[in-house]
Amino acid sequence: MLRWAEFIQGTDMRYLIVSDIHGNLAAFDAVLSAAPEHDQVLCLGDVVGYGPDPHECIHRLKALPHAGVAGNHDWAVLGKLNLEDFNADAQTAARWTQEQVSPEDLAFLSQLPDRLTAGDFTIAHGSPRHPIWEYILQTSTARANFAHFETPFCLVGHTHVPMIYALQDDRPNPRCRTFTPSEEIVLDLANAPRMIINPGSVGQPRDGSPLAAYAVLDTDAQTLSFHRQEYPVGETQRRMGELSLPARLIARLSFGW
Ligand code: ZN
């Protein structure tokens, strides 16, 4: 297995960046099939929670060369967070997920760090300031978070909305600009400002598109590209229905909301 340490040593590689898979195996498999050739998978947390195939998603990720961090739903399944802090549907899904995962699955989730720093990137599920829980949904939140990591770039997930926050370095009051990534945008990291980058969610997109979202980092070309992938949403919904998972969680996948 390729280790995260190779990144630190500066080996040029291609990374498939995925976040918030949320037990949606049909979406994860579609992304793995469609993604350009890559050397390693970087997972930004929440492998489980919401979706019908938590064990299979962990199994799939474990079998690939990968590195990753823990998300709030991973911690919920581990019992490291109070489920009362989750909304009713998320609580139901978390309790159901706790019954599905094996001791090996729990061991995998429990070894995930809450934050990783390597090469030019810091990786956290929510934010570098509060890795497990903070949502970066506003420019002001993003701007405050630039003081909490040292590297040029930070990768986050958690909101399920693809977004780029770029720091405009006109001190003493640096401004932060927001961009919505699209498949037409390829970031040139060699000439980029400091950025917090969210690739969006594989398993439960919330930006109005039901397509699975992911990104590809090429450390040789120094580029980062954004991608969307169709997957059999109805297949995931059918499985969730059979398992009596909450209706609202099933319905939202059709709309990406
Ligand atoms: Zn999530």
Question: Can you give a write-up of this model?
Answer:
The protein is of the alpha/beta class. Helices cover 30% and strands 21% of the residues. Strands 3-2-1-11-12-9 form a 6-stranded mixed β-sheet. A 6-stranded mixed β-sheet has the order 4-5-6-10-7-8. Helix 3 links the parallel strand 2 and strand 3. The longest helix has 13 residues. The model has no long low-confidence stretch (mean pLDDT 94). The structure holds zinc ion. Zinc ion (ZN) binds next to loops.
Largest beta-sheet characterization: 6 strands, mixed
Number of domains: 1
Low-confidence stretches: none
Strand content: 15-25%
Fraction in helix: 25-40%
Count of DSSP-assigned helices: 9
SSE layout:
Layout: H1 5-8, E1 14-18, H2 25-34, E2 40-43, H3 54-63, E3 66-68, H4 72-78, H5 88-100, H6 103-110, E4 115-118, E5 121-124, H7 139-145, E6 153-155, E7 163-168, E8 175-179, E9 186-188, E10 195-198, E11 212-218, E12 223-229, H8 233-242, H9 247-255
Parallel strand pairs: 1-2, 2-3, 5-6, 6-10
Antiparallel strand pairs: 1-11, 4-5, 7-8, 7-10, 9-12, 11-12
Helix pairs in contact: 4-5, 8-9
The structure holds zinc ion.
In brief:
The protein has 257 residues and is an alpha/beta fold.
Features:
binds zinc ion, Purple Acid Phosphatase, chain A, domain 2, 9 helices, 21% strand, six-stranded mixed sheet, single chain, alpha/beta, 257 residues
